[in-house]
Give the backbone structure.
Amino acid sequence: MIIAASRVLEDDAYRVPSGPSGSSGLAWLRHHVPRFTDGPDQVRLRGRVEAVLAELAEAPFDTDPTTTLLRALGLPAGLRADVAAAAGAYQPHLQQSAEADAAADRLVEACGGRTEDAAARVCVLVQAHAGVAALTAATDGPPIPYTRRIGPAGEVAVDLADAPFGAGPHRCPGEDLGRRLAAEAVR
């Protein structure tokens, strides 16, 4: 795969990979979150995620970052395993499974059913789970070293060394929350 510099994150010729569409599981989720959409849909969905993040800004730390977010959203801590399963297959290029799809469906249902607001809540849970884990494990370089984009010549891996939380319209809106949860987790 071709490696591109982070400047492509601000180039409209490079779009986010979305994966196949579907009426359930991770396929449904991906089509209802800003991470896998572009243009006006991405702007609208990002606003929903930002509203969830504002709700969680002062969430008191619990036993771990994911449990903290679950409890702050009024969800049972027992859903932590579903968050981990969905996070492990969230990116379209990762190994997909029926178990991850079922976990995503349970999370969507727990967050209110197939609505954009529920998708925003699950988006925050799943992306924070993976992102905070990467932040706490990172020693050198960015917590997540690459992201992917589809450009004029096909799919590229975008090096995040100089943009650890991304750039452009898909820059991570949860950086502050993620950094706080990671700092509290390593204490």
About this structure: The two ends are 38 Å apart (CA to CA).
